[in-house]
Amino acid sequence: MVRTLVTGATGTLGMALRSRLRAAGHTVRAASRSPPDETDGDLDWVEFDVTEDTGIETALESVEVVIHAATAPQGDTAAVDVQGTKRLLEAAEEADVEHFLYPSIVGIDDIPFSYYNHKRTAETAVEESDVPATIVRATQFHSFVAEMLGYVAKLPVWPLPTNMQIQPIAAGEVADVIVDHTTLSASGRVGPIGGPEIHSVGELARAYRDARSLCRPVIRFPIPDKTVRAFRAGHATCPDHLVGTVTWAEWLAERHANGVGGTDSRAQSPM
Ligand SMILES: NC(=O)c1ccc[n+]([C@@H]2O[C@H](COP(=O)([O-])OP(=O)(O)OC[C@H]3O[C@@H](n4cnc5c(N)ncnc54)[C@H](OP(=O)(O)O)[C@@H]3O)[C@@H](O)[C@H]2O)c1
Questions:
Q1: In total, how many domains does the chain have?
Q2: Domain span at residue 207?
């Protein structure tokens, strides 16, 4: 039985990982700043802040494998994703951790965006560390795309950079692949994981609008920006790695089956 720590355990990927790791026979420790919402009496949860020393030693105690899914895309990414990852790697080395798994994002070498720059720096720290590591890059999760589209949902018209290319994947399917790698042997940098279809943001937005029974025109709003241009050029996609099986349409149908949010990626389902 492998003893595995999941950081960012209350996030989208972290939650999907926890249930799958337990089903695969791991002893799971969960770590995050705030406790999980759900009441799970058996959950071994440690209060942990990767920007400080809070909880790091306790979280790593008797752990063989670390899956470092803590991230702060809308916060201080230098402090959390770069400095925090380096701090955790140092502590993991001290604690004789056997394998450090790092989820990352497809296309971060070619998309100029500060969060992605910080993810790349964190990947380098992971590769340069003495702790054996595996890095798994994935495309955008369905739930993330829905969250982004949610920001325009209340507007009467949706002005969007409709030509950006996205290959959304179910977070549960990313978790499945990471769990398969969660052994005592590291694999280095493994192949990227993408969803089953590549769509333009316009297509994703229209399907999202229809699934929510909203009547809003989606209009092209060109943004003259390097990040958008890189997404438009397809750098966030990996067409040779259509690993996921759950399509955007299927994910939307499941999520909006009763007119409200459904299971998201949090249950054991592939969603
Ligand atoms: N979302 C996507 O579309 C996507 C796509 C490809 C790869 N990824 C990668 O997958 C991983 C997980 O992403 P996600 O979308 O699941 O993240 P998420 O839902 O935003 O969750 C982030 C987690 O990090 C924790 N966290 C934030 N700041 C922290 C801190 N200072 N110390 C300790 N924990 C902290 C949060 O809990 P608290 O706030 O309670 O601490 C939460 O549990 C990341 O490496 C991300 O780059 C994501």
A1: 1
A2: 3-255
